[in-house]
Amino acid sequence: MGMLVSEINLQGRVINIANIHLIALHYYKRNWREKQFQNIKDFISNALVKLSEKPTIVIGDFNYANLKEIYPNVFTKGKYKEAFVGDTTPEKGQQDHALFTRHWFLRETKIIKNVEADHYICLVNLDLK
Question: Which stretches of the chain are DSSP H helices?
Fold first, then answer.
C-alpha cells in the first residue's frame, strides 16, 4: 500500500499529482468498510482534503468501487470530482479512480478494455482553469 504525492510547477502554478495503490483487501475476505481500517481511511482522506487547496489530480488503484462511501470528506470538504465511473477491471468492476479538484476542467475520459491485463487502461484529459 502506498501513496506518492508530487508537487509540480506547471506554467508558474504549483499543482499536486497523487498516485495511490491500496491493498486488495477482497483477496483476504476483508473490506475497506470495516472499522479496523478507519485509521488508514482517515489518513488518506485528511491528506487528500489538504492537497485540494491547490490544483490536484489523484489517480490510482483504490481496490474499491464507491469511494464516496468510504471517503466522504474527500468529496464534501475536498470537493473532488470523479473523472469516470465504470468498470476498470475485467473481473472486479471499478477499482481504479481519477479524482480532480475544482481547479480543473474535464475534457475527456476513455477506458480501453481491449487489453490483456488485470486492469483496463484509463485515460483522463484535464485542463487547468
Answer: 38-51, 67-70, 72-76
Question: What proportions of the chain, in percent to the nearest 5, are helix, strand and coil?
Answer: 25, 40, 40
Beta carbons of 122 and 111 less than 8 angstroms apart:
yes
Query: Are the beta carbons of 71 and 48 closer than 8 angstroms?
Result: yes
Place of cell 488485470: 118
Strand order in the sheet with 56-61: 2-10, 13-21, 56-61, 96-100, 81-82
Q: CA angle 49-59-22, nearest 5°? A: 85
Are the C-beta atoms of 65 and 97 separated by less than 8 Å? no
Give residue-wise pLDDT tens across range 31-86: 999 999 999 999 999 999 999 999 999 999 999 999 999 999 999 998 999 999 99
Q: Write down the mean pLDDT value for the chain.
A: 96
**Domains located in the chain, CATH noted:** 2-128 (3.60.10.10)
